[in-house]
Write a structure and sequence with these properties.
The complex is a heterodimer of chains A (89) and B (998).
Chain A (H helix, E strand, L loop, with lengths): L2 E4 L3 E4 L4 E5 L13 H8 L8 E7 L7 E7 L5 E6 L6
Antiparallel strand pairs in A: 1-2, 3-4, 4-5, 5-6
Chain B lengths: L13 E10 L2 E7 L3 H7 L6 E2 L6 E2 L12 E6 L2 E7 L9 E5 L13 H4 L8 H5 L6 H13 L14 E13 L3 H12 L4 E4 L15 E2 L2 E2 H14 L3 E4 L2 E7 L3 E7 L14 E13 L3 E3 L12 E3 H9 L9 E5 L3 H11 L5 E4 L7 H8 L3 E4 L1 E7 L6 E7 L6 E8 L2 E5 L2 E3 L2 H5 L4 E4 L4 E4 L6 E3 L9 H20 L10 E2 L23 E3 L4 E2 H9 L5 H8 L12 H11 L4 H4 L13 H5 L16 H6 L2 E6 L2 E7 L6 H14 L1 E5 L4 E6 L3 H8 L12 E7 L5 E11 L2 E6 L4 H15 L6 E4 L4 E7 L3 H8 L15 E6 L2 E6 L8 E7 L3 H12 L4 E3 L2 H11 L37 H4 L4 E8 L11 E3 L12 E9 L4 E9 L8 E6 L4 E8 L9 H4 L1
Parallel strand pairs in B: 1-7, 8-9, 8-15, 9-12, 15-28, 17-24, 18-19, 18-24, 19-20, 34-44
Antiparallel strand pairs in B: 1-2, 3-4, 5-6, 5-7, 10-11, 10-29, 13-14, 14-15, 16-25, 21-22, 22-23, 26-27, 30-31, 32-33, 34-40, 35-38, 35-39, 36-37, 37-38, 40-43, 41-42, 42-43, 45-48, 45-50, 46-47, 46-49, 47-48, 49-50
Helix pairs in contact in B: 5-6, 5-11, 7-8, 8-9, 12-14, 18-23
């Protein structure tokens, strides 16, 4: 079970969190004309990297904040966690 | 039976307390502190089971978790526990155990015929034997394999025992209380660290219990007892026996199973049977010790052949002799310790040492005790079927390939020692890649991946002096890192006998003309010949060899077999062991009860149960409840002999004719607040929200980004910047996460806050033509006329002294209102509604009537919004704004979504107006068409229309509204029904929606 450092609450066990997918995906702006391909990439296409991955976790049984977690997908090592809109190093 | 093999005044069992127990129906006696194994051996019983494949007789091989043979089934207070290791289970008064994998009895086992048919059961025989003809599989092969498979039988009864889970945090977890565990725990605890010390056995001390050593001028046992007593008295230390750390997971999470009541006749009132500990440790010191390795020779699975360390422990701890004419077969000095112990207890052993001329303190001691020692000697084969009676022994050449002077000598047990295998399972589970240590012919942990380190013999250190010093240092270093204290304990002096190097020899060659089975894996009956065959058939990877032959795949996970297996593969392949590598260690290290894993999450406790504040009223009024997610909701209120059909029909009819009241507390409620709340709702919902005035509600549909409907509900503007959103019961949590996602990550610039208020409000929906009259009486000072409180209007008012919110919204399609009060006032509100509503013929209605009402109105719910529907499919196109953008809008342009071929919402009525259509039925044109019959759509929800008194269903079918008027068929292969139907509008009752606005 992972031990995730919530930037708001501190170290908490994984069972307090829900996984939220790739954190690097950016939603296209509202009312902006975009191609089918761009929209398709946003809705469906995700990379599944082996190694470092910036991902979203939702602290649902804690502070209810969405956070970003930089995690190694093969070793599960967590390098750093960020608040939702913190700049990523 | 008397305990003929019990020694006087030796061992640690409590001679004061005699305990009786039953094995295979026969009564035996032992002492408190005995295991089933030690007590049976004391009674001279060695035959306890049959092997998995060949049904060969099985005795005892070890003395602890490594036991591959003595698997029994335990019956305790009408509960059954299969897969009990006799070497671990302590006896208690009234214990009943029996052998498994034998029929009709362990003494006479029909399955033993397999032993004589063994040429038909080579490695991988499953893959070869049961292939043809294919039709045999279901009726003959599979039932046959199922009958033969497994050890013991699980009980089909509910396990009434209690199991608990516990979460714990510590600075340092130490797994094993042998010398290294005790020393490191002591050093770390004295330096202020919070320590958990876990010991699998009932007694602390590990190898100190059986070795002849001195630490700090005390015997090993005395030192262990002193340290344990001191550790137990320290507030920063938790010491646990009968506790196996069986799994090492991510981020230093370890799981331990504590057997609290397994050794007691009955679980104590306030204690669980077992407790599973989830331990998050800053640091872990693995001190799980090592397991003695068997030597491989002919018929080495005969009862009476056992590990020499086990024989020693049976003597020293339990005061039990495993035999009175022992043969010790060893390639190292450990066997001598056992021999000396036998000699001290008046039994004359014979030592066969594979080495030609070793010398060490302990060998000298054995010689001085005039123990007979034969150097360069091996056991060729054990003789005897149900128990060792003699052994063929021989002198072996220096190159270990030739046998000379084969002779038969009498013996009643053969104690084998093939040196030691460190228990590296926990280190390996943590991600530590092991390395091969040539000196000890075994794998030891390499670089740490997590915060762990391995000490003592688990790390391949076999001298006590080095172990104690290393453990004291590690305990101090680890605690110093955490506590930053410098309280260092001086290392005690250690006196031990020095031993010399072991012999790498491990497998006795077959004499000419003999074909003895030489077993590697004792539990799964994998012999040397099976591995040889697998390699001949082309298997190379050790992982493949393992799976093909099942080597190391039994419940003991190959604790005694793995290394010899690797050794054999590398010998045949002309490789060295590290080139072959080892198979992966996976948790659990020892079998864990399913009950312990489940813990208390059984039955009603497997999920929380949520009840509305009016729950007790429903109970008192004969409500029959239904699970709605985690909520309990009244399904219908039973009157007299009514069934669900009559009751729900009566309740629904009463809504259409008079007035009904329904508990709608379970609906999800979310407060949306902030200056940008309107803009936010406008982006979340498909319809327009910017112009909704204060005091008005609006129905909305929200989509996922892929265009699929996520949820629907009404949202009311309470004040300028405050909205009250409702969601369906099922989606409440998901919708809140969804809103938080967009506010926190996508549009952080919007100044909006959301919070769940589901539990803050109790809700009652009053619906029916009489509902306004009822409302007038409930709120006499409020203008509730159609002008004063119009459809989709909102008012706050006082309900007999209680503040209430009134929403004029309707799910039933009738004139209806929803009243919310603070949860604490919910019961009061409900009683008032019932009391005042009496004169208007009010009746409560449950979810079944609620469904009927919404279905005949064509209102969609979860069965239509099933994760495949877009708004156009559910006749919700009027709610999709063409002007503004919203979540998921871009997806609605997808060609699949704009296709005319999509399945859309319609109504379905059986032509005979009497046959109900099963939910899930397919709508087809021709019921007799050939398989697969092209499907037009499916029936999503069915009810008995109380308006027209005939069955009515909603369906989602291709070409939707254009099919209205067509005569088709509803087919339910499950119910074996084909029903002629007519497609009608989904708005079956009041299609213009006059009632809600009346």
């Amino acid at each position: 079970m992972l031990y995730i450092n919530c930037p708001h609450c501190g170290l908490r066990s994984q069972n307090e969190f829900a996984y939220g997918g790739d954190a690097t995906v950016k939603r296209p702006e509202l009312n902006k004309e975009i191609s089918d391909q761009e929209w398709d990439n946003f809705v469906y296409l995700r990379k599944s990297p082996r190694g470092k991955h910036l991902e979203l976790w939702h602290h649902i049984s804690g502070c209810r904040q969405w956070i970003k977690v930089e995690r190694d997908t093969s070793t599960h090592e967590i390098f750093k966690t960020y608040k939702a809109n913190e700049a990523i190093e | 039976m008397s305990q003929d093999f019990r020694l006087d005044n030796v061992g640690m069992v409590n001679r004061e307390k005699k305990i009786s127990f039953k094995f295979n129906g026969k009564k035996y006696f032992g002492f408190e502190g005995d295991t089933i194994a030690s007590a049976l051996i004391a009674n001279g019983v060695h035959l306890v089971g049959r092997s998995f494949k060949y049904h060969r007789p099985r005795g005892f091989f070890g003395v602890g978790v490594d036991e591959p043979y003595a698997i029994l089934q335990l019956d305790r207070n009408n509960e059954r526990d299969p897969n009990i290791r006799a070497t671990e289970q302590e006896i208690f008064e009234g214990l009943e155990v029996k052998s498994v994998n034998c029929w009709p009895s362990v003494n006479f086992d029909i399955g033993a015929i397999n032993n004589f048919l063994k040429m038909f059961f080579p490695a991988g025989f499953y893959y070869k034997t049961f292939m043809w003809p294919p039709s045999f599989w279901y009726k003959i092969y599979e039932p046959f394999i199922r009958m033969a498979a497994g050890f013991g039988e699980a009980s089909i009864k509910h396990d009434k025992e209690r199991y608990e889970h516990k979460y714990e945090y510590c600075d340092l977890l130490i797994t094993g209380s042998g010398p290294s565990g005790l020393a490191s725990a002591y050093a770390a605890a004295k330096n202020g660290a919070r320590v958990i010390l876990a010991e699998d056995k009932p007694r602390f001390g590990g190898s100190l219990l059986t070795s002849d050593v001195n630490i700090g001028n005390q015997t090993g046992v005395e030192w262990a007892q002193k340290i344990i007593a001191e550790l137990k008295s320290m507030p920063n230390v938790t010491v646990k026996n009968r506790s196996q750390v069986f799994g090492y997971y991510d981020h230093n999470m370890l799981v331990m199973s504590e057997r609290i009541s397994d050794h007691l006749p009955k679980t104590q009132k306030y204690l669980p049977k077992q407790r599973l500990w989830y331990i998050r440790a800053n640091e872990v010191l693995i001190s799980s010790g090592s397991i003695e390795r068997p030597l491989v020779f002919g018929n080495n699975d005969t009862p009476g052949v056992m590990l020499s360390s086990a024989a020693k422990e049976y003597m020293k701890v339990y005061g039990v002799l495993v035999g009175k004419k022992p043969l010790i077969f060893t390639n190292n000095d450990s066997g001598y310790e056992t021999a000396i112990e036998f000699k001290k207890n008046g039994v004359n052993p014979i030592i066969l040492d594979t080495r030609s001329d070793p010398s060490s303190d302990i060998i000298t001691e054995a010689k001085n005790l005039s123990i007979e020692i034969k150097f360069s000697y091996v056991v060729v084969a054990a003789k005897g079927y149900k128990k060792v009676k003699s052994a063929d022994i021989a002198k072996i050449s220096d190159d270990k390939k030739e046998l000379f002077n084969i002779e038969n000598i009498k013996c009643d047990c053969i104690c084998v020692s093939g040196f030691w295998t460190p228990s590296i399972h926990l280190a390996s589970q943590s991600g530590n890649k092991s390395k091969f240590n040539e000196k000890i012919d075994a794998f030891v942990p390499d670089k740490s991946k997590q915060q762990e380190s391995t000490i003592g013999s688990a790390n391949g250190i076999f001298t006590l002096e080095e172990t104690i010093k290393d453990a004291f240092d590690k305990g101090f270093d680890v605690s110093n890192k955490i506590t930053e204290k410098n309280n260092k304990i001086s290392v005690p002096t250690v006196v031990e006998k020095k031993s010399t190097v072991h012999d790498k020899f491990w497998c006795v060659p077959l004499p000419k003309g003999k074909s003895y089975k030489r077993f590697l894996d004792f539990q799964n009956d994998v012999a040397v010949s099976d591995i040889e065959l697998a390699l001949r058939e082309g298997f190379r990877s050790i992982e493949h060899v393992k799976r093909y032959t099942t080597l190391g795949m039994a419940t003991d996970q190959g604790k005694t077999s793995n290394l010899n297996g690797l050794q054999l593969v590398s010998d045949i392949e002309n490789k060295v062991v590290p080139q072959v590598g080892h198979t992966t260690f996976r948790p659990p290290y020892t079998p864990v009860s399913i009950g312990a894993i489940v813990g208390r999450e059984v039955g009603k406790h497997s999920k929380p149960t949520r009840k509305s504040p009016m729950h007790s009223w429903h109970e008192k009024n004969n409500a029959v409840f239904v699970d709605a997610g985690v909520w309990l909701r009244p399904r219908y209120y039973k009157q007299g002999n009514e069934g669900i059909f009559e009751a729900s029909k009566r309740e629904a009819k009463n809504v259409r004719q008079n007035v009904g009241v329904c508990d709608v507390t379970t609906l999800g409620k979310i407060d949306v607040k902030g200056p940008d709340a309107a803009e936010f709702l406008n982006r979340v919902y498909t319809n327009a929200w910017l112009k909704l005035p204060v005091g008005k509600a609006r129905y909305g549909v929200m989509l996922r980004e892929d265009g699929i409907v996520m949820d629907d509900g009404t949202t009311t503007r309470i004040s300028e910047n405050h909205y009250h959103m409702t969601t369906t019961t099922a989606q409440a949590a998901n919708v809140l996460s969804h809103l938080e996602y967009y506010l926190q990550l996508v549009w952080p610039e919007l100044n909006v806050n959301v919070v769940s208020t589901t539990e803050q409000w109790a809700g009652a929906a009053i619906a029916g033509p009489n509902s306004r009259k009822l409302l007038m009486k409930l709120f006499p000072n409020l203008d509730v006329s159609n002008e004063g409180l119009p459809f989709m209007g909102y008012k706050e008012a006082d309900l007999f002294g209680v503040p209430a919110k009134i929403y004029r919204i309707s799910f039933s399609g009738e004139l209806a209102y929803e009243i919310n009060v603070e949860s604490d006032n919910g019961y009061f509100m409900w009683e008032k509604i019932m009391e005042v509503g009496k004169e208007f013929q009010i009746q409560p209605y449950g979810t079944e009537a609620l469904s009927t009402l919404r279905i005949e109105m064509g209102h969609v719910a979860g069965s239509e919004l099933d994760g495949r529907t877009i708004p156009y499919d559910a006749s919700l196109e009027g709610l999709v704004s063409k002007k503004k953008d919203f979540i998921g809008k871009r997806s609605l342009n997808r060609s699949a979504f704009t296709s005319t071929d999509r399945e859309k919402l319609v109504g379905v009525v059986p032509i005979d107006k009497t046959t109900s259509i099963p939910e899930g039925s397919y709508i087809v044109k021709d019921p007799k068409a050939k398989f697969p019959n092209p499907k037009l759509g499916h029936v999503s929800a069915s009810c008995w229309s109380v308006e027209y008194d005939n069955p009515f269903s909603l369906a989602i079918i291709k070409d939707g509204k254009n099919m209205i008027g067509q005569k088709l068929f509803a087919m339910s292969p499950l119910k074996n029904k084909t029903i002629p139907v007519e497609i009608v509008s989904s708005h079956y009752v009041d299609p213009e929606g006059k009632r809600v606005r009346s």
